[in-house]
Amino acid sequence: MSQQTLTYPSVSVGDKLPQLDIDVSTALIVGGAVASRDFTPVHHDIGAAKATGMQDVFMNILTTNGLVARYATDWAGPESKIKKLDIKLGVPNFPGMVMKMTGSVIEKDDANGIVEIEIAGKNTWGAHVTGTVQLALPTEA
């Protein structure tokens, strides 16, 4: 992904973001839950997860939120600023899955220098996350 920050004029509606494959591991799931202070047992205790009918521990929404933000800002660069993040969860992410993040630019707000990207994170079961991210980009390099 980008080390330089994209500028608003350099981005066009229809631009595709490069795919990012995220290996979903137990460490990612548990670490994300603990880092976001979500101590709900289904995110770190396999017995608790299985007691609810799940096959293993599963990713929490706060970890997913962070991964979506990472995907957007890795593409846009370090000087970009997230203005709005709106996501919806679908199927769970379990250890051993790979979540494939994809996105594209769907709108530009010329008055405010904001681009909106549509994102999806899919695993073998389908869409784990879908949504949009609005980013403010510098108007010049």
Specify the overall morphology: elongated
The structural domain count equals: 1
Number of distinct helices: 3
Strands of the largest sheet, in order across it? 1-3-4-5-2
C-alpha Rg (nearest Å) = 16 Å
The helicity comes to 10-25%
DSSP strand count:
5
Low-confidence stretches: none
Strand content: 35-45%
What would CATH call the architecture? Answer: Roll
CATH fold title: Thiol Ester Dehydrase, Chain A
How do the SSEs run, as a string of H and E? EHHHEEEE
Q: What multimeric state do the chains show?
A: single chain
| Average pLDDT figure | 95
- CATH level-4 homologous superfamily: Hotdog Thioesterase
Structural key phrases:
3 helices, alpha+beta, five-stranded antiparallel β-sheet, Thiol Ester Dehydrase, Chain A
Task: Give a description of the structure.
The chain has helices spanning 26-35, 46-51, 61-76, and strands at residues 16-23, 81-89, 98-109, 114-123, 126-136. The chain is of the alpha+beta class. The chain has one domain (8-136): Thiol Ester Dehydrase, Chain A (Roll), CATH 3.10.129. Strands 1-3-4-5-2 form a 5-stranded antiparallel β-sheet, with helices on one face. The chain starts with 15 loop residues before the first strand and ends in a 5-residue tail after the last strand. 26% of the residues are buried. The mean pLDDT is 95.
Task: Walk me through the topology.
Layout: E1 16-23, H1 26-35, H2 46-51, H3 61-76, E2 81-89, E3 98-109, E4 114-123, E5 126-136
Antiparallel strand pairs: 1-3, 2-5, 3-4, 4-5
